[in-house]
# Entry
Amino acid sequence: MIHRNAFCWCGSGKKWKNCHFPDEGAGSFETLRKRYLDRYHIIVKDEQEIAKIRRASQVTSEILMEVARAAKAGVTTKELDILAAKLCDKANATPAALHYGEPPFPGNICISLNEVVCHGIPDETVLKEGDILNIDVACIVGGYYGDCSMMVAIGEIDEEKRRVMDAAYDGLMESIKILKPGALVSDIGKRITEVAKERDCSVVDQFVAHGVGRHFHENPQIPHSLNRFDIPLVPGMTFTIEPMINGGTKEAIISKSDGWTARTKDGRPSAQWEHTLLITPSGHEILTPWKRIS
# Structure
């Protein structure tokens, strides 16, 4: 159990309670957990919950990798969705996206092609040379959730698509580097924005990342753009980071026909990568250890 009498993550040699503890005078882990639930509606997880979230995230990551490897020219996005369903069944996992929300999402996973920012619905569209796609997998395993996504390039892609894919990936990984107790939620969006501007890209602000673990979507919201969510990170927080980066304007338009598919307003490409993260006493842990293949 995480306790305030542990040595602080910053290396000062002081106990956490006397150094970077987020609230002077707070007591035990249970006191911290109650305070964060009361103040921010954030569920700080204990060791047993973390173990279950870690397992769910591992399974989710493995399914994502298998589906990503199957994404080739000539394959339909529906075929990838069917594969994901079979992999979930084999792993005793439940697709978290299926029938989620209003209107109920009709796919087991989200597959977002080219100018689709997020929430793309699998269908009979055939993948072709030059496409980029985001595959977003979320699973329930043993009552707990894991959530992650990655980009796949189909053959050779143009310079803008490569730039957007790389900016989104680097934004994710650079923002993960700053995660540790005492860092602020707002620091994440600040770092992602810096990376996007360096690559002449924009950051979508209509959608955010989120806490995850006990539920599919929990507090806190994790904006990827500049924001004032100055909530200190503490050990036991689990959440996603999933920057959506556009080649042109940041605005997205949601389909009126299906209520889900969000496309860039200007039709230029978009990219997104996602990990589920845990804040630890000494820093962070990536709970969804997928490996980039494109």
The helical segments are 29-40, 47-70, 77-90, 159-177, 185-198. The first helix runs from residue 29 to 40. The longest strand covers residues 132-141.
